[in-house]
Amino acid sequence: MSVLKPRGTNSLPFRHTQVAWIKSDSKAILAIHTHMVALNPRLSVTHNGHNTWKLHISHVQLNDSGSYMCQVNTDPMRHQSGNLDVVVPPDILNENEPNTLEGGVANEGGNVQLVCQATGVPEPAVQWRRENGKDIVVRTEGREKQVVKFVEGERLVLNQVQRTDMGGYLCIASNGVPPSVSKRFDVQVNCKYFTSFALLIIFPASPQRANSLIRFCYLFILHLSHFAFDCG
């Protein structure tokens, strides 16, 4: 619950004094004395019978943020303003059920892009880290690489991935409002293995059968050269 209280009114004559509460940005009158004008069950006003009026806001929501003014019906009129800032802890968008994984798969030498979007007030900062404190290898198109402990931003781009890049990556969102949240992404790399082999071919006497055998051997070798295995 948030409570707003006017101050500095000790010298006012309170016998016939009333206080109006106004939401400054919308100019909406919320309450006069202890009578509620706004049809909002989360708002209420209390008065101690002397010099203190309090505006109570229960179950505070984001749209309650803004400036509030208490206006005293003296001559001349007096008023005092206060600001309510509502903060929201970070949350990661499109988060799957617990213990499920998201990530990317690429062939060795390919690229992987991970995206993690977060909401909150103030706007959260997003940081990427690897599980178990491993380093993140950031490679440029020129194959220059930089080894870092973390990367900031919603997108993590892994260029020319190697089998050492496989594993879990954590997206961590924080904005100073506890708790921070994280999401795990799994990166898999398909590694190519080229195996040397020898074929003993005994050509049949028939030219037609020999041509069929040669065609089969060519397709077999072509298939092996493009075969990829999971590095794990």
TrEMBL record:
<feature type="domain" description="Ig-like">
    <location>
        <begin position="90"/>
        <end position="182"/>
    </location>
</feature>
<dbReference type="InterPro" id="IPR003598">
    <property type="entry name" value="Ig_sub2"/>
</dbReference>
<dbReference type="InterPro" id="IPR003599">
    <property type="entry name" value="Ig_sub"/>
</dbReference>
<dbReference type="InterPro" id="IPR007110">
    <property type="entry name" value="Ig-like_dom"/>
</dbReference>
<dbReference type="Pfam" id="PF07686">
    <property type="entry name" value="V-set"/>
</dbReference>
<keyword id="KW-1015">Disulfide bond</keyword>
<dbReference type="InterPro" id="IPR013106">
    <property type="entry name" value="Ig_V-set"/>
</dbReference>
<dbReference type="InterPro" id="IPR013783">
    <property type="entry name" value="Ig-like_fold"/>
</dbReference>
<protein>
    <submittedName>
        <fullName>Ig-like domain-containing protein</fullName>
    </submittedName>
</protein>
<dbReference type="GO" id="GO:0005886">
    <property type="term" value="C:plasma membrane"/>
</dbReference>
<keyword id="KW-0393">Immunoglobulin domain</keyword>
<dbReference type="InterPro" id="IPR051170">
    <property type="entry name" value="Neural/epithelial_adhesion"/>
</dbReference>
<dbReference type="GO" id="GO:0043005">
    <property type="term" value="C:neuron projection"/>
</dbReference>
<keyword id="KW-0677">Repeat</keyword>
<keyword id="KW-0732">Signal</keyword>
<dbReference type="Pfam" id="PF13927">
    <property type="entry name" value="Ig_3"/>
</dbReference>
<dbReference type="InterPro" id="IPR036179">
    <property type="entry name" value="Ig-like_dom_sf"/>
</dbReference>
